[in-house]
Amino acid sequence: MHLRLAPALALAVALHGSGCSDAGTVDPGGPQAGSGDGGAGGDGGGGPGEIAGVGGGSGLSTDVRVIITADNAYGFGYGTGDKLLNYFGGIENLLADEIFSCPVGHGPESYTVPARSADAGHYLYIVTYADMLTTQGVIGQFFREGAEPVFTGDGAWEVCATGEDYDLGSHGPTLETINQHIARCNGGDTDPQTTSAGWVTTEVSDRGHVVFGEANDTARDVPQPGNEFPVVCGIDEGARWMWYEWNPTRDTGSPFMWPGGSGNVIRDFLIFRLGAEFVPEPPR
Questions:
Q1: Cys staple from 93: which of 98, 117, 196, 264, with CB 3.0 to 4.6 Å?
Q2: What is the C-alpha separation between 10 and 194, in angstroms, rounded?
Q3: Cβ neighbours of residue 223 under 8 Å, at least 6 residues apart?
């Protein structure tokens, strides 16, 4: 039986799925947990959008239903432009079945995030890192009644490549460490040889960019550029794999495939974020 690391939750979270690799609930006061208070932070006031991933202070009373997985590790949370206010983190996938396979809870994890947690600030954050083997990426969906769904690989996602590497088994960065890096990303003054030197978007630049990969609708036997991953259980076809392109002049290979070597070539861990103002409100 493989034991998966349990995520630390800022507030009570109902987790669905079964099997020994399903995510578990731990004490909200644990080392990865945030305050969960939407009133804290630099720009935590009401945001203009009502989307599944980000409440933006909109007052929506519905919970957010999340299914997410990564090759290999991830956490997610909600916050302001300055910091995470809560963090659901600590999942590390060592085996392919833990990333892709059915049922949900054996492969990808399912969460129900209470409305108050999702309304903390108006940014959705995903933190992720990978091992140095084969492939790397993150894919997920965020659904909320009365709001547009949010998918990875769709919309105005930003990423900051921190260059601070974590191995599987390390439990990843703490909330405090993530917030320190968000501040550095906002400052944009880190080393461009080992980081993205601030936030980058899908626009190609010499500092790298967000890259959207294949949709969750293609089978795979052997990883190859453009078809790196098999279909993930339980995630909508509207979701796409997402990662950081560290090589802006790439003419071969794929940012979703490990290029070889022993250094932190891919510059992870990565912090992705999506602001509510970049997603249109649903029709009323």
A1: 98
A2: 31
A3: 134, 135, 229, 257
Give the whole-angstrom CA distance, residue 11 versus residue 30. 11
Collapsing DSSP to helix, strand or coil, 143 comes out as strand
Of 275, 278, 276, 272, the C-alpha closest to 126 is 272
In a domain, 283, yes or no: no
Contact between residue 241 and residue 139 where contact means Cβ atoms under 8 Å apart: yes
Closest CA to 159 of 246, 228, 44: 246
Mean pLDDT for the chain?
80
Is 1 part of any domain? no
Distance CA 244, CA 247 (A): 9
**Domains: count for the chain:** 1
For 193, which DSSP code?
T
pLDDT digits (tens, 9 = 90+) for 209-240: 999 999 999 888 899 999 999 999 999 999 99
> Helix, strand, or coil here: 26?
coil
Q: How far apart are CA 211 and CA 272, in angstroms?
A: 11
Range of the domain at 107: 14-278
Residue 176 falls inside a structural domain: yes
In a domain, 6, yes or no: no
CA–CA dist 21, 78 (Å, integer): 24
* Buried residues in 258-267 as b, exposed as e (16+ CB within 10 A): beeeeebebb
Cβ atoms 63, 44 nearer than 8 A: no
**pLDDT per residue as tens digits for the range 88-132:** 878 999 999 999 999 999 999 999 999 888 888 889 999 999 998
* Per-residue tokens: 147: 């709001």
pTM of the predicted model as reported, rounded to 2 decimal places: 0.82
